Request: fold
Amino acid sequence: MAADIVPHLPPTIAQVPAFVGGRYPDRPIIARCGAAGVSWLTGRQLLGEVQTVSHGLRSLGMQPGDRVAMVCESRPEWVVTDLAVLTAAAATAPIYPTLAPEQVAYILRDCGAAVVVVSTAIQLDKVLSVAASVPALTTIIVIDPPDPLPSREGLTVLSLADVAARGRQVGGDDRSLTVTPDDLATLIYTSGTTGEPKGVMLTHGNLASNLRDICAILPVSETDTALSFLPLSHSFERMVTWVYMANGVGMAFAESNESLGRDLLQVRPTIMTGVPRVFEKLQSRILQKGLALPGVKGALFKWAMGVAHRRGQYVPERKPMPVGLRLQSALAERLVFAKVREGLGGRFRYVVSGSAALNADVARFFFGVGLPIIEGFGLTETSPVLTVTPNHDVRLGAVGVAIPNVQIRIADDGEILAKGPNIMRGYYNRPADTAEVLRDGWFHTGDIGTLDADGYLRITDRKKELIVTSGGKKIAPSAIEAQFKASPLVSEAVVVGEKRHFPAVLLVPDFAALAARMGTQVPSGGEAIQQWLAQPDVQSVYAGLVDEINRGLAQFERLKQFRLLSREFSIATGELTPTFKVKRRVIDTMYAAEIASIYDA
Reply:
């Protein structure tokens, strides 16, 4: 187990670079994919880069306790800069690069950052456009700088390479050993599904305890290679990065979401992390591609998917398969499953799904094609991991058991509560909000769930997202939505009905899958798509899907109406958080006319 592989982990994240550089000096630790291949940094090289950038930041006046904001896509420079700040006893404030300028400005003002690190000219222009509204801001550092660098009165703008050069020139002492577990390490702003974002204060002790406890149970080692494509601004992927580093796992960042297929084949990872929506979309694409195969190949793929479905009822929980299914599985493995996995690099031992509960049918699909999924659960406020599924005892529909040193219990109203050394200090400058969620030492997660006799946690919904109809019936929308999203024909689903007579659903079709189903092409332009979706044969397809799902619901949960939306939800247009969670309040506002038409009818 990982606990035997990584003894004596440091008490602060500030000491992680020295730990990795000393333990894995020649091991390729971190890299970024590109058209020319994968370029790696060893543990020794990583430590050296962290030290030079840290010295350079200190030469610019960064002091212990200062905030350094980061607006940057996931890449090795993100990790280097983050650790450079932490080793100097300052704190980082990650900002999703997908956020709009006014959202970036809000976080910069709230955290009081004097320095912000950006990735490209695009992010530089974004920060410059709001700099006048951020009085504390004095310095902008650009990883990939434009030529020439812009000048702005009252602001210093320089490249990360210049900062590193300054660090090599001036040098400095090692401040990492002065950092204590009680020192603030980071301010991570929540995604804001239910209001403006709050700065979660996490200490070095919070993060280091979570790192140690995950390493004690997650089966990773120097023999593993990982591919990362989730944003490092998300606490889950950031923690995973440290777990990989501490275990000597080589981790490469995908160049972009568009290059993911190429990067999987370049890196050929053995492990990978994602959020549930990633795996839902991956399943949809595998099915869509396979079912589009002509003739015998298409028939063979369809047969194999039936085998995978049946196999997924046995494999996750290690139940013995009937003899006939074992024989069919062996044949499907050679003819189809191995090829599916080869398209993902061909070396996966398992993947990890975190941040929210994964639909059990999606998990069965991946187990069925020979790709095990380990689930976990946590929140930004919990550093973030609370539970992990033991790989030797998978129970689908559950998100695992509490990691060492964490306690989980269920409140009288069904809310999941947690206690442990990984629980945040509080929300920055928000004592009332902190008091609301931290009571008697227990963090109130806002999620509704159950614990079984063996300590396995199941999440059933979000406390604040329960829909209460005008008849007083309470409906958990996420379970219903997950059933829709399990269909290849559905990209997104949002159940509505708060204070209404009955529930209904907004559906975003998977337009490519729908076109394949209808034997046509996706129309060009929003108006043409709307006309297409209004056609009786298209409406009939989704009416049938609604009827099918309604058969498994209680009478008060059954959906009386549906509406098809003509464009995908996105982060840029505001319907999704950076971790692909639906912002229900935004949906209610943006699609008010569609919702009104349901109930007016």
The domain at 271-463 is CATH 3.40.50.12780 (Rossmann fold). The chain has 21 helices and 27 strands. Confidence is low (pLDDT under 50) at residues 1-5. Residues 323-342 form the longest helix (20 residues).
